[in-house]
User: Fold these one by one.
Assistant:
Number 1:
Amino acid sequence: MTKAIKLTLTEDEAEIIVDALEADMEGYLESAKEARGNANREDVKTFSEAAERIGALINKVRALLD
């Protein structure tokens, strides 16, 4: 298991992180789409999993903002 950390942020800082994560997630989704077009299943899996993990983190941060 990975070590948990505590981080104190302002709401603005958390929104900046969410925005950056969304941009990163879009890049992974685009890479997965390209990999699908190239019939590269392993890359599709890798990029899709990364996008899912980023999405989960976005949801976790957003939940703290609500």
Number 2:
Amino acid sequence: MASAAPEATGEKKKLWGGRFSEDIDPLMEKFNESLSFDRRMAQEDIRGSKGYAKALAKTGIITDDERDQLVEGLGKVAEEWAADAFVVKSGDEDIHTANERRLGELIGPVAGKLHTGRSRNDQVATDTRMWLRDQLVLLRGHLRQLIAVAVERAEREVDVVMPGFTHLQSAQTVRWSHWLLSHAAAWQRDDMRIADLMPRVNTLPLGSGALAGNPFGVDRQALAADLAFERVCPNSMDAVSDRDYVAETMFWASATMIHLSRWSEDLIIYSSGQFGMVKLSDAYSTGSSLMPQKKNPDALELLRGKSGRILGTLTGFLAVMKGTPTTYNKDFQEAWEGLFDTVDTMSDCLQIAAGCLATLSIDPEAMRRGLSADMLATDLAEYLVRRGVPFRETHHISGAAVKLAEDKKCALSDLTLEDLLPLCDKFEADVVDIWSYDKSAESRDTEGGSSRRSVLEQCAKLRRYLEETEGEVVPY
């Protein structure tokens, strides 16, 4: 005698349960579920399902009336999620299962027609791409705000000079604005990278089925247009197994966080008591539980620390993907928590960075105190270059002048013309003019250099870039 069907006995049916006769291990149920984290894609799952219902109706597989029932019912499910009134039940292993189960409760058996020709394989890929493209728009907006803050400060504080460093050793005189724009240049590349990434994220997998394609003639181009995708995935097998867009997002985040981490490290150093060149706002600092005098740059340290977290997520995800066979594998579920955490962390970090930069104060006098005459050694060499001496010779002559100042226990700028002439007969009385930090910075007047004109030109270029690309940052 045939056993009763699950629906006849009141048991809950799995979407995939027809082939199985034994109950699933409760631990496996927990191990397998993803609703606890993929529920954040509820609205995207519903939007994609509405689009798919319309596409099915165009093929004649469902009637227009059935399409309307599906769309109306999905709208009610969306309202429940929006009102935080959706009731999760046992067996809701993921957002797709939960939404379809609730849809059936609302509109009856016609809900079962929604999944015709569709698999959770192409469904989840569609949902995540829809979710991610909207998140990338928001992240790009935060990143561009950080760039805008940097440009505004660079223009306003262009006349402040400070030490520039290589190997963390005092090197040459630069402008504070020039240092600031060095980081903004990296952030601009990050903005370019996210713009380049967006079209590959915004590619439609839906209509690929489990792996082999859709047998009902769904018009994928029309479906893509309806769901605001730029194009469709060109191969159904690749479509359901492609997670490059996840890896690329994680790489973009990693590169951006490396830039934020290096920026943070600079400011942590510059804010230390030994430097005292910048001071972080109280809003982004904490104190010590033991030492009342302490003001710790915790926001910057957390930015530096979270870069490691983002890098680790990328590395872990690539390790998950590297050995998976074609096409879909449940390993891919490991992508989502890392992706969600990456997006959340980047949102926080970019906004915190912008807040730190907008509110920190600088001490121009402390910056100037950090300058030392030996940082003008290159200027001394360049003085002789202008008098026809080959640079390789002037480099050695300037080095000898530095050694002479050390031996005399005086600053390089305290050497007299009489001290310098034995090193090279090209020195003249006007050599004293090079002992100026402002002139040193101003002398490097090439494109991208540290002169006032060049720095303001860099600001203008960044402003123009932000204006010209503003139209790209639009919601889908």
Number 3:
Amino acid sequence: MKLRGVGRRYGLGGPWVLRGVDLDLPPHTVVRVEGVNGSGKSTLLRLLAGIDTPTEGSLTGRPRTAYVPERFPAALPFTATGYLLHLGRIHGLGRAAAQSAATEWLERFGITEYARTPLTRLSKGTSQKIAVAQALLAAPELLILDEAWTGLDTAARATLDGAVAERVAAGATAVFVDHDPRRLADAVGEVHRVEGTALVAVEAVREESGPRVRIEAAGPPGAVLPAHLPGAPGRETGLDSTTLTVAAVHSDALLRALLTSRPPWHIRGVAHLVPEDR
């Protein structure tokens, strides 16, 4: 997707929230959007999601898009599964595929017991898991997350981190806003800040804190590792194997990417590192 000279204001004479925004969203990329409260971050994400339209400028090349809003509208006449099925169909899935995807994401977020519970009776945390699940149902090419981690428990946050890594490894673009500056720090490829009405690129700084995992993998003769792997792992190439080091939150997605690549790679060893091992 590309934005050129995009501006947005509300009302004919209203002040500009954003103006002159140029932005490219390449595949295999995690993009963080920063800015103070009320700066226009959510407006930008709504433009990317197609919820809002630009007042001026152009937005082209829209891929299959999914969006998690800052506030989930829980007062809807659906059960948890009913809502996921409904959104799955909107995302273009057939009924059987939508049912399978709904079951998968309810299981991954550990909320299968609420499958038939009306949305209005769910806790805020469970509602947020449903909000995230609907965005992941149809394997979007552009995943837009507006403070999607807020309200999630630790396990669900890790599940969402892993899901973002999976989508990006598959070629998607993820754009997110979050109050935690460490969120997806090992995976972020671009950072943009809303300043005034402009969008300014800033340097991405990777966090090296937190648990990491070292994976030793070997491919068949002549095999080359994919260019984009979950978590942007560090690489050390040996005579007959490659060692990859990645933040632990991305390790499952990285292993999955190696094992499902064509041709698949053989995993020789997995080690969890302590700080002195790095």
